[in-house]
Amino acid sequence: MAKTFVFKFGGASIKDADSIKNLFNILHNRLRNHTIIVVSAMGKTTNALEKILSKKLTDEDYSLNITILKDFHLDICKQLFPSSHPIFSQLENDFLRLQRAINKTVDKQNYDEVYDSIICFGELIASRIVYQFLCTQGLICLWQDAREIIKTNEDFRFALVDWQTTRQNCHNYLMPKLLQFPVVTQGFIAMSNSGKTTTLGREGSDFSAAILASCLQSQSVTIWKDVPGVLNADPKRFAQTIKFDELDYREAAELTYYGASVIHPKTIKPLANHHIPLFVKSFLTPDDPGTKIHEVEQSQKIPCFVVKDDQVLVSFKVTDFTFIDEGHIHQIYAELQKLKLRVNLLQISAISISLVIEKQVFKLEQLIEGLEADFEIRYNEGLQLVTIKNHHPKLIQEVTEKREVLLEQVTRATFQAVMTPLAQ
């Protein structure tokens, strides 16, 4: 089998015309024929599309939001292409299709399905612009709709990959193209076997890159970020950070599990299973080595900090003077699974279960509706979940001082606390 390589570029790396020109400069010296270029939506496009959908749900006027989003992409194209270039008619068609998708009826019951049908336009539009620009610069490549390759079930917004079909598609349809030219495709989006658009979870473009790499047994995956590699903390939140030159698969997976935003949580497993190294590098300083994630014998003990915003602490208290047992836990988790809510922290006492979840449209309301007959339910919104891996008392004190801590857990290696955000 031919050696393949996967490059993934996130939204920050293609946020404007200069960034796309920088992407070309990165690829110019590194592009091989058997390379897959996985592209996210540009800048904050996904957030903008979510806002449009939110306004649709509340019967607010969203026409200005669509105009702003369209102008954002048009302005980038005007800086990259001559006015006669076909990208402008393609962009017009994409936004007409987006408008049709938004016009569909949406409510609590079909929200996730409509969400996927709308959010996918961010990646589709971005990949067309990147593809067309690379071709104008002499880097001849092919465009591939990822939905034709990556197949899933219909668990909308959190679709599970049909690995067997996806692997067959990679070998039968993607590999013949790669043998001729590099291929530009999209991250995050996929398609069910019945033909409906699905997504792989928020920020899932990293996972897309890992799916394609594992199915093709690629030589490596490189994720291009606005940071120099994997750091022990978010540099936007912490003044001093440490970059890891290398990380073991397990350590990287653990950091992503707790919410480290540099890599999507599902990315590591398919790469580790096939011993494919993952490089995290900066698109600002592309010649720097970044971080290599692979099999490392000696684990590191540097403290790592992960902060998750917009967390909701929900407490379920039994009302009939019984103690919490496995039946109560199963009942709550069955409702969480039905609503596709991931638990970020769990604590059980004699008479209550407390858990931390992400804030999502409708979901808290539906969770309460499903369980309020059997539990007394209280919740707090707008919280932060802070995790310290390889903690010590001084670090815990520094993180929690001047904050109201609502719940905390400590193990030998990990400290976690749900608390109010720092006052601005």
From TrEMBL:
Family the entry assigns: Belongs to the aspartokinase family.
EC assignment: 2.7.2.4
Residue ranges crossing the lipid bilayer per the database entry: none
Pathway(s): Amino-acid biosynthesis; L-threonine biosynthesis; L-threonine from L-aspartate: step 1/5; Amino-acid biosynthesis; L-methionine biosynthesis via de novo pathway; L-homoserine from L-aspartate: step 1/3; Amino-acid biosynthesis; L-lysine biosynthesis via DAP pathway; (S)-tetrahydrodipicolinate from L-aspartate: step 1/4
Protein name, per record: Aspartokinase
GO MF annotations, alphabetized: aspartate kinase activity; ATP binding
Organism the protein comes from: Arthrospiribacter ruber
Keywords: Amino-acid biosynthesis, ATP-binding, Kinase, Nucleotide-binding, Transferase
Aspartate/glutamate/uridylate kinase domain sequence ranges: 3-282
Lineage of producing organism: Bacteria, Pseudomonadati, Bacteroidota, Cytophagia, Cytophagales
